[in-house]
Amino acid sequence: IKRITTSTIKELKAKGEKISMLTAYDYSIAKVLDNAGVEVILVGDSAANVIAGYETTLPITLDQMIYHASSVVRATEHALVLVDLPFGSYQGSADEAFKSAVRMMKESGAHALKLEGGIEIIDNIKKIIAAGIPVCGHLGLTPQSINKFGTFGVRAKEDAEAEKLIADAKALEEAGCFAVVLEKIPAALAKKVTASLSMATIGIGAGDDCDGQVLVVNDFLGLTKDFKPKFVRQYLKLYDEILVAAGQYVKDVKSGNFPNEQEQY
Ligand code: KIV
Ligand code: NA
Question: NAD among the record's keywords (predicted)?
Answer without folding.
Answer: no
